[in-house]
Design goal:
69% helix, single chain, two-stranded antiparallel ribbon, mainly alpha
Length: 163
């Protein structure tokens, strides 16, 4: 009887926890194997993040730039600085440029759950939406590549939740 009442009072939190575990298991393991080769942009992000973390300068020698010159375009700085922070915390690994995107994928799943719960006041709708977000091949693939758009989605959802 006690276990049943505990389950009833905490089933939403257990559901959220289960969804976040599933999202993490689909995003973090084997980051260097799937997709197997590092893209040019990912290599650029990794190199610049290490350079910023070690010297405070990008590959062109600019101190703490607001845009990063890449292969013919300028990239926004948030992903580079986030990756530099991860480099300082964990050190170098071939998965380094992809880790912030994987974290953003799990955080986005949590934020979608909270947003739907707030909008609909329905725990089951929130859990269903979170499960779809966690298990969707589209979001899994975006989370396994170093894409600043995935980090931007997390920031957007966080802002929408606070609004």
């Amino acid at each position: 009887m006690k276990l049943r009442s505990l389950w009833q009072s905490h089933k939403f939190f257990l559901g959220v926890f289960s969804i976040l575990v599933a999202a993490s298991l689909l995003r973090f393991p084997f980051l260097t194997l799937f997709t197997p080769a590092m893209l040019q942009d990912e290599a650029n992000i990794g190199f610049n993040a290490m350079s910023i973390a070690e010297t405070g300068r990008d590959e062109w020698g600019h101190p703490y730039p607001l845009t990063f010159k890449s292969f013919g375009d300028d990239k926004p700085p948030v992903y580079f600085y986030t990756t530099a922070l991860v480099y300082k915390l964990l050190g170098w690994s071939p998965a380094l440029p992809r880790i912030p995107s994987a974290v953003a994928g799990v955080v986005s799943t949590l934020l979608v759950i909270l947003l739907v719960k707030k909008l609909t006041d329905s725990q089951s709708a929130a859990l269903l939406t979170g499960a779809v977000m966690a298990l969707s091949p589209w979001t899994i693939q975006l989370s396994r590549m170093a894409l600043e758009s995935n980090l931007a989605l997390s920031f957007f959802l966080f802002g929408l939740l606070l609004f």
